[in-house]
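Re: that chain you flagged

S.,

Sorry for the slow reply, it's been a week of failed gels. I finally had a moment to sit down with the sequence you sent. For the record, here it is as I used it:
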Amino acid sequence: MELTVGAVLEGKVKSITNFGAFISLPENKTGMVHISEVANAYVSDIRQHLTEGQEVKVVVIGTENGKINLSIKRLEPKPQRENNSGRPNFRNNNAPRREGGNPQGQNRSANRAPIQPAAPKTADQLFEEKLKAFMSESDSKLSSMKQYADHRSKRRRG
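Prediction finished late last night. Pasting the structure tokens below so you have them in one place:
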């Protein structure tokens, strides 16, 4: 069976790592769901979303060098955003805007609790951040290389 991008399959979670889950597919094939492809929300611990032996529906998002890249979140409906920025608009558009951007003219920080410093990141979290950044940069470079190659091939034809 030749797996193509966009194919929807049923599989079983074979094993879970900090960066993703390996899924058993039909015909003794195995694919991987990266932690960023598990849910539409941020996933800090994949084990809160998946367990070994769980049946899951996945979509093939890529096949390269014999590796099968899968996604669970791309089969879920995307969450609705309230406006273009993804943040709710709380500003009263009828209120006059004063200097400093605060329509009430109050010092908002005086009413806030002190901000607690973030806990130091673990080595796994640092590695995963670096891996995500690398993957994003790599995808971006590959995309621009493909666009350049397509552009060149069109110029040669015409």
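What I noticed first: The mean pLDDT is 80.

Talk soon,
D.
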